Amino acid sequence: MDSTRPPSDSSVEPSIDTLIPTFRFMIHRKMRRKAHGQYRRHSTRRYIFSAIVIALFLSLIGIGAQRLELASSWPELLLIIILLILMIYVVVKVSIVVRWCFYWLVLATLVLFVINKGSFFETVRNGPEAKADPDGKNALRAKIVLIVLASLEVFTLGTVVFLRVVYPRIVLRAQWLNVKKWWRIRDVPSPSSRSVNYRTIMFSYVSWDEDEYRLQRSSVSYVGEFDEEGRPHGLGEWTDHTFTGEALQGIWDHGEPIGPFKSQEYGTGNAFNNIRIGFCKNSIDKDDSTAFKAARDPKGLSYGAAAVECSVSGKFFHHLPFVRIIGKGIYRSELDHIAKEDLEAPSIALSYPLSFLSTFAESLQTRPSIRGSFRNGKSKKSIPLSKSIVVRYTDRGILIPGYIRSRRRGDVNEVVIRRICPPNMGTEGQNVVIEGSDAGRDRSTSQTPVPTLLVPTNQAEGSNGGGSASDDSDYGPADAILDGPSNSPEDRRRSGEYGRRKRLNQEGLMVEGWRQVMDIDGKTPSALAASRAGYEALVFIHGYNCPLTYGIGRLGQLLSLGEFPPYIKPFVFNWPSSTTLGYFTANAVGCSDVVAKDLRQFIEDLREAGFRRVHILAHSMGARIVLSALRKGYFDGVVAEREVVAVEEPSLESAHGGSKTALHARASVRYRDTMSGRSFKTTRSSTQQAAISDSFSNSDDPTTPIQLATFTLLNPDADLEIFLEEDYWTLSKYCPHITLYADAHDGALFWSELLTRQKSLGRHPRTLVYGPTGEVLDVDVIDTTSLDVNIHSIRHNFFNLNRMLVDDLYDVVVLGRRARERAGRLSSRWTFSDSGLEDGEVYTFLCAPSYVVNK
Q1: DSSP string for 19-38
Q2: Domain count of the chain?
Q3: 3-class SS of residue 240
Q4: What is the pLDDT of residues 344-402, one digit of tens each?
Q5: Which of 168, 174, 272, 364 has CB atoms 3.0–4.6 Å from 263's, for a disulfide?
Q6: What is the signed CA dihedral for 308, 311, 313, 316, rounded to 10 degrees?
Q7: Rounded to whole angstroms, how far apart are CA atoms 297 and 281?
Q8: Which residues on adjacent β-strands are paired with residue 122?
Q9: 686-733, pLDDT tens digit by residue?
Q10: What is the three-class DSSP state of 10?
């Protein structure tokens, strides 16, 4: 059923009753954020103060220092000390989560201090307890305090458990709960001007305002598409005007938001993004856990997709990233079997996960704008304008990823990009009234229409402003694409058609003669769509002890903070990574031939799906997995090799005589990185590197090898000597852009070196130079040792949270910029070999430590 059409006779009319399940789900989302809580800064002083208070409390009730003298033996004394330490630890942890538990404890400590008359050890100084308290009143008072304290603690914990665990489940699932009476829901009249493509439902309810600490009535509205049962389904926008309510716009699935969507709390400003990520899995592990006995799935590869919600602004929440599998994993063998039985089914295995990988921008393009149609009118698709456009060089001309040419004629080596901005704003902000006649426009002009969001008006139906709009009526005046105002007759004719209508024009960039293609949604052949639009794949290969959902969450956080463009489709390759104690098991299974074959098959499926460029992000042991497959030759034939121009044998004079390294001399290879006939050495300049070969981007032939555009090593757990001797030279045959992020204080790689007795690639950023010949490796080495923001004490997994790294990875993957071209963020320094000669550049981030502040 087309959700944009009026409901049929068998459909339920959308109303407050049909919206009740969605309302309960959104209330549950609000409660879940409250229950899991937000990340807070760790305070050492708070821990110390809590421990001191608890120690004083234990001393006052006679379980502390007074009772230690009753220990008759060392084992008994040691047991008492251990129990005290455990008790203090548990109470501190509970008190930090539930603040009132700590407040009751402090109050009880003060009361006991008064009862004991300001002395902690009075019974010890005065002898037996009978002499210190002959009437036993102090002991009775202490018991009463303890009983009251225990009652308050139990009541507080019970209340917290009910409000954070039991009550949210009642709200979400209890059928006996009368929602209308409990929240006192009332109907609110909808606006008089409704969209023809979407329905609007509004109501109000009573809620607790955390900002003003009182009950108040707040309004809720939903405008969007509905299913046959009257529930939100498709594109829609939910707005809850309570302090922690959400303004959520995105894709809904039978009453629940599944993403992609963008959301923001109404009062706090905390923002969230939900994006979709595909995955390729070959392990027998569950999606959210790993098994010690790592093993490959005997059924082979399975493909699927997930939606991951991440915090992007304001406070960050403990339960985010939250991963939800929306495209259940299907084995590749089953997909091939379905394709053979059904001739109309796509024969490409990746068509299944690709059908789920729509972005928020693509979702807006496939439907009319939510607020973009007049009464009794028709609305065209609203294509969000890009804020940044990447232009690539190819042997066939210019390629703009995410765009295809809409005109057959034109110079393939020339492109015109124009800035789009709203007209001059009036006093009402972006709503501008354009006066003029309603004369028809000359449709013989070849002017490219400008995407425009239209705001409904309250004009009468008989007027031109409220009547039926033509197919082109959703586009703003043509003079919006010009650099300045124009008074030509043609411009006045075009603007006259839109008399007395308010418009909200988009801002961004427009490419003349090109149009955006965002149609990898199962409706068109994915290979054709991907190849024609220049779509690129981003493959994340995680480290060991990493479940599928954890890897998807880490990549989702990176993409959410980085705002990667829609033409880059993300995937996670999930391999059998074992558990924390299964390091050697994960290493053995991950570097096996079966995993290498599966990785090759995944790359082949990407190629057959139409992708011509792939970016690989390998973290920790994931780098060892990819480098092992490369070394064994599993990428031959599926990944394009760079053309060799010349090979120069190393001379003995160039070797460093005093070098301690035992590496053998290698030849210096010249590669051709463009199709223009110019050859560059591996140590080429930044200007030369900008012209990366992209000869495969416009080819629709599925047998054409895929190009490894970038290869990024994130704190790689790989052998340093093997990388210098062999892996680099194999990798440089395929990839012109290699980046390494290393940290000299990486705790995880420290233990890896201790276990394997080999230097780790990600822990020695200053040694990536080929020793005997003195030739600097063509690797951008980024030293992250000085970073200290959003970094765990282990310093091994922070690439998706640290803002400097997120922006740097965006420049690497999206813009293809080398380290020397990122001078605004990176500072270079030279490293020196044992002989004292300069042998390479290492880059560090231009940022001050977090503890440096203005005085």
Answers
A1: HHHHHHHHHHHHHHHHHH-B
A2: 2
A3: strand
A4: 555 678 888 988 988 887 777 666 666 543 333 344 455 667 778 888 887 778 888 88
A5: 272
A6: -170
A7: 9
A8: none
A9: 333 333 333 333 445 667 889 999 999 999 999 998 998 889 989 999
A10: coil
- Picking from 168, 187, 203, the residue at the C-terminal end of a domain is 168
Tell me how far apart the alpha carbons of residues 456 and 475 are, in angstroms, rounded to a whole number: 14
H or E element that contains 89: helix 74-97
Cβ atoms of residues 727 and 718 within 8 Å: yes
Residue 704 covered by a domain: yes
Helix (H) or strand (E) holding 722: helix 720-722
Q: Is 724 helix (H, G, I), strand (E, B) or coil?
A: helix
Q: Are 526 and 561 in contact (CB under 8 A)?
A: no
| Non-local CB neighbours of 91 within 8 Å, separated by 6+ positions | 50, 54, 101, 105
Q: Which amino acid is at 667?
A: A
Domain's final residue, options 108, 138, 168: 168
How far does the chain reach from its first CA to its final CA, in angstroms?
A: 64
388 touches 417 (CB < 8 A): no
Domain presence at residue 64: yes
Domain that holds residue 65: 44-168
* 119 found inside a domain: yes
Helices (H), 162-241: 167-173, 179-183
How far is it, in rounded angstroms, from Cα 98 to Cα 120? 27
Instruction: Please give the DSSP secondary-structure letter assigned to residue 776.
Output: B
The rounded distance, in Å, linking the Cα atoms of 469 and 457 is 13
Residue 238: which residues within 8 A CB-CB, separation 6 or more? Answer: 22, 26, 220, 221, 222, 232, 246, 247, 248, 249, 257
Q: Which residues pair with 669 in a beta bridge?
A: 647
User: Which of these, 543, 685, 688, 704, lies nearest to 614 by C-alpha position?
Assistant: 704
